[in-house]
Amino acid sequence: MYRQSNRISIWLLIGTLLASCIQIAHAVFEDQAGVLDWHHAWIGTPEIATERNGLIYTVTSRNVIAALNASTGEIEWRQLLERPVASFKMNDDALFTITDEKLPLLQVWDSPSGKLLWQDRKVDDLSKDAAILDAVFLSTGDVAILTSSGSVVIRTKDGGQHWRWVPELSSSTTPVSLAEVDGHVYVINEHKGVLSNSLQVHKLDTQHGIVQDEYKLSASPKDLDLVKVINGHVVWIEKNHIKTNALGSSDISTVSIDSFEAFHSKAIISDTYAITILDQGSNEFLLTGQFISDEQPYHVAAVLKVDGNAVKLTLNLGTSFYSHTVSAHGNTVAALQRQSKNTLTLLLKHTKSDAETAKSIIEHSSDHTGEVRYFSLLSTVPLHTLVVYDDGSMRLYHGSDLAWSREESLAYIADSEFVDLPEEKLWSQMADETSEVPEQHSPIQRYIHRLQSDIAKLPELPQWFLTRFSGVMEALQKKRELTPVYLSQQSLNDSETPSMIYRDNFGLRKLIISVTSTGKVVAQDTQNQGKLIWAKYYPNVQFEQVISVRAATVKMPPLIVAIGRNVEEGTMVLYRLNALDGDEYYTEDASIAESFDPILETPTIATKVFTLPVQEPDERTQILALYDAGTTRVYIYPDTEGARSAFSEFLPSFYFSLVNKDSTAIKGYQVVEGYRGSLTASAVWNFDVPKGSTLVALGSRSPHEKVASLGRVLGNRNVLYKYLNPNLFAVAIADPQAQTMTLTLLDGVKGSVLYQVTHEDVDTIHHDVHIGTSENWIVYHYWSNGAIRGSAKAYQVSVLELYEGSGENERIDSKSLSGYDNQRPHIRADTFVFPYGVRTLGITDTRNGVSTREVLFGLNNNQILGVSRRMLDSRRPREKPNKEHQEEGLIPYGPIPDERKMFLSYSLEVLGMESIITAPALLESTSLVFAYGLDTFFTYRAPSRQFDVLSEEFNKSQLLLTIVALVVAIFVTGPMVRRKRVNTLWK
Amino acid sequence: MSDKSKWSVDFASLESTSRASSIPSPVGFDGNWAIQNSRESSKASRSADADHNDMTLKARRAWDVAMGPAKTIPMNAIMIYMSGTGVQIFSVMITAMLFWQPIKAIFTLNQTFERFEPTGAAKNHPEASLLTSKATFLALQLVTIGLGIYKVNAMGLLPTTTSDWLAFMPPKQIMEYFAI
């Protein structure tokens, strides 16, 4: 027994030694971090923002609470919540958030550090299903919580319970709000009586929770939301009247809304009245209403002030077609209104004094950002205002000057694409040569032409050498000046024109074009910390997809098509943009100009857009196919004559598939030409998801992927031929009841099931399933409960490898591969224990696919883990690796190691990751990786190490010095040797 | 050289055709006397018998040379074994030698055996023919080359397996285009 265990440990030792020798993982050094890669932390667009002690505290629509440095815009801390925030309040050293869900979660955070102090979904108020309704910070620093059962619970800052007050409420009473005035807690409930409605107010002692007073206010507000507590006053609207009550007294004062100038004699629809609290500590509130004139809605707004028992008008905002935004800070009310296309007016009114309204003008064009969505007056002396625009960007103004901005639209990326940049010399030098037609010019003529253009470029040669040399010098000095990340996160200014950037020698520099759900198209440089190159804003558009339709070629700029929906019009929009500067691309060819419009707006909303591998002949852009499920019609884009004929040639071999609306089936279609050349999709096959089961994941190969080798070479130099079927895709179907997960490999053309495997004891309810597909293998990640013997209760990742035959050197003998052939792959599979939960998954892509691929797992802990394909290999031997295994480079079987070296994101937290995209560089070893979601993160990845680049440690200066020293030595010793030879001859 | 020249001083073969004939004999030297003396010492009527002796000697020598490579084969085999199958500078050098030396020897085959060519009357004697010894020599050199080929194969440098032709295989043509 002892001997056996001893032997096993020796095996283990050998295994680990081997594994360490192979060194699959490689990490960055500390000084390399952040040099080529960049991480932009985003928060989303603020919905509430206040400034305290030089920090801007904000809650955003991406469910982030964050503190920003008020002078630079850097994030001091942030927390990503799972649900939207319904309520946010803060005092000097803490803040709390209540989430918007059925059972709201109250979380109390330490405001300087952003650490969670305590959280609770339920407070101990003796009732069973009471949810947290509202809360306030008391002047003592405690938190008073109102629950849906009407009880009040006082918790200390650290979460300890002080006291609770549990009233006995009748079923017709609903709690509304609570407030603290002069050391007393007031609880307001609405009581629906038989004859009349009323608001019940209880006055509690802050120290012990003893009821000190109780009174009723007869009131029947239309909606509970219309009852607000504004700085110790209950304010509500009732039939065109504003009613107020100063808490502590039972008097109600009533003011007719009509009496205010702004609302006077306007047929305002009474349902549209709304009260907005501007600032926690001020008496001002905003009253808005809407009326319709000439079928156009108009907004009326005024800032009112509760003063004792009276409501007075502070600022009349009047009727304006443009929306306006109001904010208050202490005793100052501010409103931001659009004055003209390029200017915004900031109105400031001090409420205590009768001073005139101050005005200041902010220069800002609405073209690039849209209108103001949110505005907050952060401080009055000095005047700091935060403005959030419709495109998702936010700007902080000092007075009327822009202090800093954040391009928060990138927190809303819907889709991203890498675009290759053109080469600088190609662009200028060969521009004329492309216009040559080979048939018209003889090769000699063309050669002479080329020589001429080369000679014309000769004067630039010294310059070229100089730049080359300076490049070497820079490399020698190793000086890198980095712009701070927060600077590269800034929005572009109105006046900025996009700078032209070109490809580098290794193709490491590309553009990342992202489209956002806020209607923005943003291009970022992969170098220079992801600096913005250009940005475009389209109002009312929600972008969904971006497709690169033309790569950069000589004379022709790269083109992208941004696809989205116009929310207001209910149409689908397609914009064809020049990827280098973001301008809409107009063709120079007049004959197709009509059907090659850069903007296409259509009421037909395509269910799915497919990129086809055919180009139209005029502009050489890839043709897109738009499928409309409602009419089963297929449209092509662009719809030019050339595109039509190119498409009709391609038509017979075009198939596509779609998951139907409610994910109950996958359908395969073929496009057929119908009446008068109209294209319709006819169903070819149907794959039903069984009842009670759900489709949980889908994975297909990237169409751009290149495969270097058709087979896999084994240790004995035999070959396993890969089954390379680009039409294959994987579907994971889960049956939550039986706790099984079935993975099916389908051929998309015929819909034939190529392979099916069912995993038992898989929890698909609490854990997602993710599929990654590349070459001839499929990787999928899931959670196993591990009830079956021998299976681990852990995250598992399985790999399926498809080969043409079961044995070595076996091959299906045919020159082509069709979905209608009766060919079935042979599958080799294996499963490995995986250390983390996964949010998303990507696979590295290199130029020719020679480098070993790496599967990039976006983890639940906001990191990105790169696992080499050699780890996810079905051939990893379970026994001691023999000579053949070693020859093949196989690693002994084992779980995927939890190795910090394998993290692409080293110490960074890439919050809210949703997708990881990759693109090849010109260097075979390197792949570009971009992860987005909330944060954006870009890095280079060399999965098989950088075999085609000199390592950083390579001492170039030493090499140069050695060469110089050798040359000098030759010159010195040469004459010496010659003399010696002559001398010996004389002897 | 000295050994060889000592060996080759054979007065029996001192003919007027030899190299020395172009130089006049020293004063008082009687060439005939010298020949006569030597003939007397061999105690035989010269010509046929002496020629035969010479021929067998040459044939034996030729056989010695022909069998020379056979002695180096075991040594080469040991070197092959010792240098391993890895592709390193040492094993590559040894392998290159295994090819280079035999090929060189084959090309200089006639030069190697030139001095054993029978002369005179022995030319027509069947035993004097160097054909068999040359063939043996050639065969042994080929065996050495064979060793080299074995070595190259052991190093995995011969394209004998399917994996070696994998890169030249055309990919299958995909008949349909599928989008999802």
Automatic annotation (TrEMBL), chain A:
<feature type="transmembrane region" description="Helical">
    <location>
        <begin position="959"/>
        <end position="977"/>
    </location>
</feature>
<dbReference type="InterPro" id="IPR011047">
    <property type="entry name" value="Quinoprotein_ADH-like_sf"/>
</dbReference>
<dbReference type="Pfam" id="PF25293">
    <property type="entry name" value="Beta-prop_EMC1_N"/>
</dbReference>
<feature type="signal peptide">
    <location>
        <begin position="1"/>
        <end position="27"/>
    </location>
</feature>
<dbReference type="InterPro" id="IPR015943">
    <property type="entry name" value="WD40/YVTN_repeat-like_dom_sf"/>
</dbReference>
<keyword id="KW-0732">Signal</keyword>
<comment type="subunit">
    <text>Component of the ER membrane protein complex (EMC).</text>
</comment>
<feature type="domain" description="ER membrane protein complex subunit 1 C-terminal">
    <location>
        <begin position="774"/>
        <end position="986"/>
    </location>
</feature>
<keyword id="KW-0325">Glycoprotein</keyword>
<keyword id="KW-0256">Endoplasmic reticulum</keyword>
<dbReference type="GO" id="GO:0034975">
    <property type="term" value="P:protein folding in endoplasmic reticulum"/>
</dbReference>
<feature type="compositionally biased region" description="Basic and acidic residues">
    <location>
        <begin position="872"/>
        <end position="888"/>
    </location>
</feature>
<comment type="similarity">
    <text>Belongs to the EMC1 family.</text>
</comment>
<feature type="domain" description="EMC1 first beta-propeller">
    <location>
        <begin position="27"/>
        <end position="408"/>
    </location>
</feature>
<dbReference type="InterPro" id="IPR058545">
    <property type="entry name" value="Beta-prop_EMC1_1st"/>
</dbReference>
<keyword id="KW-1133">Transmembrane helix</keyword>
<dbReference type="Pfam" id="PF07774">
    <property type="entry name" value="EMC1_C"/>
</dbReference>
<feature type="region of interest" description="Disordered">
    <location>
        <begin position="872"/>
        <end position="891"/>
    </location>
</feature>
<protein>
    <recommendedName>
        <fullName>ER membrane protein complex subunit 1</fullName>
    </recommendedName>
</protein>
<dbReference type="GO" id="GO:0072546">
    <property type="term" value="C:EMC complex"/>
</dbReference>
<keyword id="KW-0812">Transmembrane</keyword>
<dbReference type="InterPro" id="IPR026895">
    <property type="entry name" value="EMC1"/>
</dbReference>
From TrEMBL, chain B:
<feature type="region of interest" description="Disordered">
    <location>
        <begin position="1"/>
        <end position="30"/>
    </location>
</feature>
<protein>
    <recommendedName>
        <fullName>ER membrane protein complex subunit 4</fullName>
    </recommendedName>
</protein>
<comment type="similarity">
    <text>Belongs to the EMC4 family.</text>
</comment>
<keyword id="KW-0812">Transmembrane</keyword>
<keyword id="KW-0256">Endoplasmic reticulum</keyword>
<feature type="transmembrane region" description="Helical">
    <location>
        <begin position="78"/>
        <end position="100"/>
    </location>
</feature>
<dbReference type="GO" id="GO:0005789">
    <property type="term" value="C:endoplasmic reticulum membrane"/>
</dbReference>
<keyword id="KW-1133">Transmembrane helix</keyword>
<feature type="compositionally biased region" description="Polar residues">
    <location>
        <begin position="14"/>
        <end position="24"/>
    </location>
</feature>
<dbReference type="InterPro" id="IPR009445">
    <property type="entry name" value="TMEM85/Emc4"/>
</dbReference>
<keyword id="KW-0472">Membrane</keyword>
<dbReference type="Pfam" id="PF06417">
    <property type="entry name" value="EMC4"/>
</dbReference>
